[in-house]
Amino acid sequence: SKDTEGKLLDYLNNNLISPYINIIDDSYYKISNCKDIILRQFKVNTLIPIGLDGRDEIISSCGSLLLYILETEMQDLTNIKQLEIRNNKDYMILDKSTVRNLELLETIYEGKAKGSLIGVLNKTKTSMGERLLKRYIREPLINTDEIIKRQNAIESLINNNIAKKELNNQLKKIYDFQRLTSKIAKGRANARDLISLKQTLSALPEIKKILQPINSVLIKEIYKNLDNFDDLYELIHNSIVEEPPATIKEGNIINEGYSIELDYLKESIKSAKSWILNLESSEKERTGIKTLKVGYNKIFGYYIDVSKSQINNVPDEYIRKQTLVNNERYVTPELKEKESLVITAEAKINKLEYEIFQEIREKIIPYIIRLQKASKAVAEIDVLLSLSEVAIRNNYIKPIIDDSGIIDIKEGRHPSIEEILGDNIFVPNDTLISLDDKPPYDKSMLIITGPNMSGKSTYMRQTALIVLMAQIGSYVPASYARIGIVDRVFTRIGASDNLSYGQSTFFVEMSELANILRNATTKSLIILDEVGRGTSTFDGLSIAWAVADYLSTNEDAIRTMFATHYHELTLLESQNKKVKNLSVAVSDDGKDVVFLHKIVEGPANKSYGIHVAKIAGVPSKIRISAEKKLKELEKSSLSIGINNNMGQIKFFDEIDDATSNNDKLIDALYDVEIDNITPIDALNKLNELKQMI
Prior knowledge:
The protein is of the alpha/beta class. The chain is built from 25 helices and 14 strands. Strands 10-11-12-8-13-14 form a 6-stranded mixed beta sheet, with helices on both faces. It has a 4-stranded antiparallel beta sheet with strand order 1-2-4-3. Helix 19 links the parallel strand 10 (489-493) and strand 11. The longest helix has 32 residues, at 333-364. The protein is elongated and about 135 Å long. The two termini are 51 Å apart. Mean pLDDT is 85; it is low at 497-502 and 638-659.
């Protein structure tokens, strides 16, 4: 239905990065059509061997994809040899907001890799390795054993510096043979592609030799997938010249000695070519024309070029072929004869070379599955080497991975910001958040207050990044880390209008929040930065309170980091044992304010917004006016409940009722005519207001 289609489009736009959506005909999804294309593609008689029997939802999705690709590619899909069914239960799903907010693959504002997580971790030497690393980042593991397997492989490389250096040297010789293999299967590879493949194959035995003694389960699996391709190497080495042209239909690509017929044809025109090659020198000597040249082009063939100043010396047997501004071009009967012989033979040679090249390409087809496995293995070792190099260079540590509900990080650092700052300038911070009930692991929600620009967002982001890095299998920027497996990371950081859909900032914020609350589980990690700031103070505060209360007090509490300027939320700590207040330390001597970027226990006592305005360059006249207004507001502000110094509004357990009562209370106070009220009436009104609290 159109309604379902609309909901699907909204879901795709919200959860995929820059999606291209093309709605195709329903016939693509018809089970019978999908079965037919799958059976043909994988050359099987039933769906049982490829694990699809009775799995109609996968048959429909797989078959429709094959049909669509077949239609758009308009050729056989020879390169698609295997079907891999991937289980989402093995990987973490990251939505578009999280990938963007955490700057996993590119920075938010510039869209560049530098400054993002991939920019820090990517020290790969091959295109295949870079693509695989991006996949690792987009799909962190949630299986403890698989994560530890990757960790141990990285550790084994860190501990074997010689092997690491030798592998890096060999990887520099590797071309992108994942794509080369695909081009060969599609019949699009040229002779240069085969030479690139040959050079790649020459490095594989050495890579395998280096890997053989390394004691790691994952590296041993990689070792097994690096097959022996000596026969394929010999095929390309014997058949294709070392430096072939880019085209494959104009000859000069097949080695001498590979084809008897081709060698015979080439031999038959050697004397004619030799005669043409020597013609220029012999004619200069015979005619005395020192400027005479022999040339060739595709339109006029071979010719003898003479400058116009020398045309009186041209022999009678020369036949004028072309007149130029400063030159005349001629042919001779013998030159025409030799040209005819050469061109006819070369046409046959080029045609035969092209046919031979196609045959060579076809001979490589049976190797495709083995080449695909080998290319995947090379990509894996490239990624592991990259992660080991980053770990050494940046002083990362191997985190403890388990299935507990604990995230315990000592001296954690933001990987991207640390790299940009350099020279140990970054201020590290601890994080302890857990689903356990026993102290100190009994806090599932951290409410973080403090000034803008003081480091709240950085602190939360670095925690999320350390968790993701750990579940990629990477070492992490900390002095100690214990990561209880997280099934999903959700972030709600900032918001902007979505004008094309007619959605306001606040609507986008609430939509993202709704997605988090509907999909997060007890094993998730939620990062919330400023919930409720896009609407009025009381509305926003009510929503923020309700969200914080729900995530920390229901029986299925979720690990949550909640940064806010609503200081009222810090009251939750006194009402809920799962909540802990943190803030960013500030040095304030009354004149100068310095943000220390250090996370400390307890709530912040000031926002320093006007100080941030000063740092940002807001004119002093505006700031002075703002400071004056702030003092007026602080002096006249209504304080209800406890903590008058912070101007906090006390909320009750039922947030909706409390908000409603506050509104009524404020209205009642505004209705009091202070100048006209009697002492008795004042006491009665005070008692009435007391009942409303």
